[in-house]
TrEMBL record:
PANTHER family: CONSERVED PROTEIN (PTHR43566), DUF4143 DOMAIN-CONTAINING PROTEIN (PTHR43566:SF2). It comes from uncultured Thiotrichaceae bacterium. This is Uncharacterized protein.
């Protein structure tokens, strides 16, 4: 049974989905845009630095898949199911 949560801090930074599996925590942001924007990563990076380290972070949007060296991966909506496998 997945443990899914929403996060919002006092500054308005939000993480759409936090997925807890054992002691591990994944962050998932969902964006409606088909154009990549580096600002999509900001809330995930802030959360991982200031609250709890995310073992992996994903940004689901309608554009193309991208991998980043800072443990953040952008993927198209149609590929989101692989996060939970």
């Amino acid at each position: 049974k997945p443990n899914l949560y929403f996060f919002r801090d006092s500054q308005g930074r939000e993480i759409d989905i936090l997925h807890k599996s054992g002691r591990d925590l994944l962050g998932i942001e969902i964006k409606s845009s088909s154009t990549w924007n580096a600002s999509f990563k900001k809330a995930l990076q802030h959360f991982s630095k200031n609250h709890h380290t995310l073992i992996k972070s994903y940004i689901a949007y309608s554009g193309e898949n991208k991998a980043f060296s800072d443990h953040i991966e952008a993927l198209n909506f149609r590929d989101i199911s692989r996060i939970f496998n």
